[in-house]
Amino acid sequence: MKKLLIILFLGFALYGLYEKNPGFIQSFTALSTASDQLLQRAYENRQSNFQVGGSGVVIKILPDDLQGNRHQKFILRLSSGQTLLIAHNIDIAPRIDTLRERDTVEFLGEYEWNAKGGVVHWTHHDPAGRHSSGWLKHNGFTYQ
Fold this sequence. Notes:
The chain has a single domain, classed as CATH 2.40.50.200. Helix content is about 25%, strand content about 30%. It is built from two helices and seven strands; from the N terminus they run ααβββββββ. The protein has helices at about 1-20, 25-45, and strands at about 50-60, 70-75, 85-90, 105-110, 120, 135-140, 140-144. The N and C termini lie far apart (about 30 Å).
């Protein structure tokens, strides 16, 4: 668990460096690698309920889930090859209407294990302020 927290901390630290220096692509590459490794370990160990950030390529756009809280759903493939389902609450955050397969999406949200690679949700702000905020970034826009 201690190693997982260290990797998570390093991933966020590298992401902070990238945010301050967007032209410094090496820090983004390091972040993606650290994030992919963290997600791979979480998948292998069936871990859930932690904040994670990273990026991936959209390989499948699924129909919106309109039962209860509405969610935009799509599958990302990480550079490691692992897949993640993104479940983005469109009752709280804007829907990404321009999303297409092969687009790159950056994400920050809560990871939940499943047998297909995992789900990232909480990709939005928390109106009640009790949960860590997340977001999605696509084509220069942040959806939160």
